[in-house]
Amino acid sequence: MKIAISMLLLTIITSAWAQEKSQSDLGGLLPADAKVEKLAGGLQFIEGPAWMPAGFLVFSDIPADEIKKWDGQNVSTFRAPSNNSNGNTIDGEGRLISCEHSGRRVVRMEKDGSLTVLADSYQGKKLNSPNDAVVQTDGTIWFTDPPYGIPKGQKQEQGHNYVFAIDAKTKELHAVASDFDHPNGLCFSPDEKKLYVADSGKPRHIRVFDVAAQHTLENGKIFCAIDKGVPDGIRCDKDGNIWSSAGEGVQVFSPEGKLIGKILVPEAPANLCFGGADGKTLFMTARTGLYSIRTNTTGARGIFQGGTR
Ligand code: MG
């Protein structure tokens, strides 16, 4: 009897340890000694991290009206004014794509520093306030358009909070989803057959779609729900796991939508991206602070293209 009880206790202790272990390293996605590090503070409200091919991080400070640069040591101004940019991503040619709140448009920064407007209206009406974007291998740019950043005194002109795609060849803007409350972060699976879109409005969940020809979405379903806070920025790693911002930090889900674990962060991250010299650092923009943690994985899109998928 005593032996049976001892065995039972041992089993309970071992399984509790295993659970603790799997939560701390996220089933091997993080090194065992990985720790959240604060890289910079004193910012206003930061969003949209993107790792530039030149080897530094950019991110938006929305109220400060600047895109910032973190060079591994210091934070400086990368572009100002930014028209209160929010989400940033990198295209296949290494160019920075930015979603502007007060500009109510999506822009691309060319190699000479000039900006090209990629989208600012749909059916003759102003966009709401583009929030986040992702670029497909063929160059099609997908972005979300909730109304969070419409400047005071201006009106919402669109009848929906759309998810849009800018066709790589024709440059035409297509509404690909109109039934989101507040569509926000988005990312592709490694094979680009699935698109994940966060809804940071009432549903507080992430939906997944099959990507069909002619940039249309099919078979939409709920992928996962966020239990604390809302899903804002999301990223996919090379194995198809989804890393989502949430109220208490970052929540990581398997390709089947099962919660693998959480990374707790002192401030609530609004967005995240993979980057660093080897692509294995996860950067998190969290209110007034920029944070990072080392991982054992990379973004679905690889190292020098922003790791943004
Ligand atoms: Mg966002």
Describe the structure.
The chain starts with a helix and ends in a 15-residue tail after the last strand. The strands form 7 sheets. The protein has a 4-stranded antiparallel beta sheet, with no helix packed on it. The protein has a 4-stranded antiparallel beta sheet with strand order 2-3-4-5, with no helix packed on it. The chain has a 4-stranded antiparallel beta sheet with strand order 6-7-8-9, with no helix packed on it. The protein has 1 helix and 26 strands. The model is unreliable at 14-23 (pLDDT under 50). It has one helix at 2-25, and strands at residues 37-40, 46-52, 56-61, 66-70, 75-79, 85-90, 96-100, 105-109, 115-119, 121-122, 125-126, 133-135, 141-144, 163-166, 173-177, 183-188, 194-199, 205-212, 216-225, 234-236, 242-246, 249-253, 259-264, 271-275, 281-286, 289-294. It is 8% helix and 43% strand. It has one domain: Neuraminidase, CATH 2.120.10.30. With 309 residues, the chain is mainly β. Bound molecules: magnesium ion (MG).
How helix-rich are the residues, as a percent range? under 10%
CATH class annotation: Mainly Beta
Number of domains as seen in the coordinates: 1
Distance between termini? 55 Å
Assigned CATH architecture: 6 Propeller
CATH third-level topology: Neuraminidase
Gyration radius, rounded? 20 Å
